[in-house]
Amino acid sequence: MAKQPKDSKTAQTATESKQGKSGSQQPGRFKQIGMVARVVHKQSPRSIPTAVGIALAVLVLSIVGGFLTGWWLYWITLGVPIAFLAGFVYFSRVAQKTQYAMLDGQLGAGMAILDNLRGDWTVESGVSANRQMDVVHRAVGRPGIVLVGEGDPNRLKGLLATEKKRVSRVAHSAPIYDLQVGNGSGQVPVSRLQRHLMKLPRNLKKGEVGELRNRLNAMPASMQMPKGPMPKGAKMPKGPKPQKN
């Protein structure tokens, strides 16, 4: 999962919350799995029966193998975990497709994918935005700097170009990639965003990535999106009016 910068207060709150819930961590996981299963079943009613069917089919094959060879213990011991794994892998893929389908077209879908990036990634949400709620996120990892835009394609061009120019002042030789999330021409669909980022070449060493993050963190902040959901009817704050001489 991608790393998110935290201040001391947030880190302290997270630590206290973790300590307070340490005894109920395992039930929470089972509850989460149950919630995912209900959502997946609602969107694709045949997915769970199919996953169970795949697991049973693998188990039956192991029983047949044991019957033909006479090595019952070997085949059953091998077949049970493989059967469970086969069913779970199928269910996981269906759950992922369901997640992508639910996120597609939603503002913030790209950030939801960035939050679950694998590897040594650091993600900053809403490093740049405008009054029309177009937003640019920044991910930093071994490939370099990746700017991910969400919103209107035409407005995002200028927003991405401005942010790219801003970070280029401290990027030095680090590559800077920019892309837009969406289903239009030249955009990256939500379902392919994680795969697209993971295929980028590893241009930097781990030490160089750390130095790059420090330089980016030292930059003055640009206009950012407010944290949390935007209330209905909320307007972006206006800048000060120019004074007349």
What can you tell me about this protein's structure?
- This protein is an alpha+beta fold and 245 residues long.
- It has two domains: 26-103, no CATH class; 109-217, no CATH class.
- Helix content is 54%, strand content 11%.
- The chain has helices at 8-20, 25-43, 47-69, 72-103, 109-114, 153-171, 190-198, 206-217, and strands at 122-129, 135-141, 144-150, 176-180.
- Strands 1-2-3-4 form a four-stranded mixed beta sheet.
- Helix 3 (47-69) packs antiparallel against helix 4.
Question: How would you sum up this structure in a few lines?
Answer:
The chain is an alpha+beta fold and 245 residues long.
What's the tally of helices?
8
User: What is the terminal separation in angstroms?
Assistant: 54 Å
Strand order of the largest sheet: 1-2-3-4
Average the pLDDT over all residues and give the rounded result.
77
Topology, number of strands: 4
Keywords: Membrane, Transmembrane, Transmembrane helix
Subcellular location: Cell membrane
Membrane topology: Multi-pass membrane protein
GO molecular function, one term: ATP binding
